[in-house]
């Protein structure tokens, strides 16, 4: 498709690979089981003006086809996350912009059953290294609702800078929600983010 996609990234029990149509059954099971866990942080479609177009959430098939099309065009990297061989979440690098910016932003969710095991920090670290070293991006952003403590801890552990608040930035859980912006540039992790995470994660000092 292009020089940096498709690709599979792995570290220990955590694997990122391209999302596939045949993931539907496993993706639906994890997503439905985590409805209450994910709902407060999930993007929603804002209401339209009277007489405006009615916009429906895409089906799984439509979502995957859109993600694959965007990946083919070099604008997105759509991964599923596997932990110990089972689908455990999703991570997407979206809004990839070239020219004088060379940036993108990361969004993710993970199965509550594996939260707290280092899966998401590992997945983000793998992705950042791929974006900086293979794709050639210079800046990565992650935008998170201030109330989402677990997600904020992921990027804070990895050393992302908090840059400020974007008021009413995205339509989440039925309303326009403020988001904190976290960012990182390639110069800030010359040793690689995965190497940094390996040094920082619990138990590393005893190895």
UniProtKB/TrEMBL annotation:
<comment type="similarity">
    <text>Belongs to the acetyltransferase family. RimJ subfamily.</text>
</comment>
<protein>
    <submittedName>
        <fullName>GNAT family N-acetyltransferase</fullName>
    </submittedName>
</protein>
<dbReference type="InterPro" id="IPR016181">
    <property type="entry name" value="Acyl_CoA_acyltransferase"/>
</dbReference>
<dbReference type="InterPro" id="IPR000182">
    <property type="entry name" value="GNAT_dom"/>
</dbReference>
<keyword id="KW-0012">Acyltransferase</keyword>
<dbReference type="InterPro" id="IPR051531">
    <property type="entry name" value="N-acetyltransferase"/>
</dbReference>
<keyword id="KW-0808">Transferase</keyword>
<feature type="domain" description="N-acetyltransferase">
    <location>
        <begin position="14"/>
        <end position="187"/>
    </location>
</feature>
<dbReference type="Pfam" id="PF13302">
    <property type="entry name" value="Acetyltransf_3"/>
</dbReference>
């Amino acid at each position: 498709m292009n020089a940096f996609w498709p690709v599979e990234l792995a570290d220990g029990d955590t694997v990122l690979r391209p999302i596939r149509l045949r993931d539907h059954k496993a993706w639906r099971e994890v997503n439905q089981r985590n409805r209450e866990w994910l709902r407060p942080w999930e993007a929603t479609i804002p209401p339209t003006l009277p007489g405006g177009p009615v916009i429906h959430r895409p089906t799984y098939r439509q979502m995957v086809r859109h993600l694959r099309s965007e990946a083919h065009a070099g604008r997105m990297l759509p991964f599923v996350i596997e932990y110990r061989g089972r689908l455990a979440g999703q991570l997407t690098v979206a809004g990839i912009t070239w020219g004088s910016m060379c940036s993108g932003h990361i969004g993710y969710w993970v199965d509550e059953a594996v939260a707290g095991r280092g899966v998401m920090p590992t997945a983000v670290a793998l992705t950042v290294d791929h974006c900086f070293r293979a794709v050639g991006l210079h800046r990565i952003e992650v935008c998170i609702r201030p109330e989402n403590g677990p997600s904020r801890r992921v990027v804070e552990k990895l050393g992302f800078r908090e840059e400020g608040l974007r008021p009413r930035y995205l339509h989440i859980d039925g309303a326009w929600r403020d988001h904190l912006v976290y960012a990182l540039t390639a110069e800030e992790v010359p040793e690689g983010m995965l190497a940094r995470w390996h040094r920082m994660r619990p138990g590393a000092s005893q190895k």
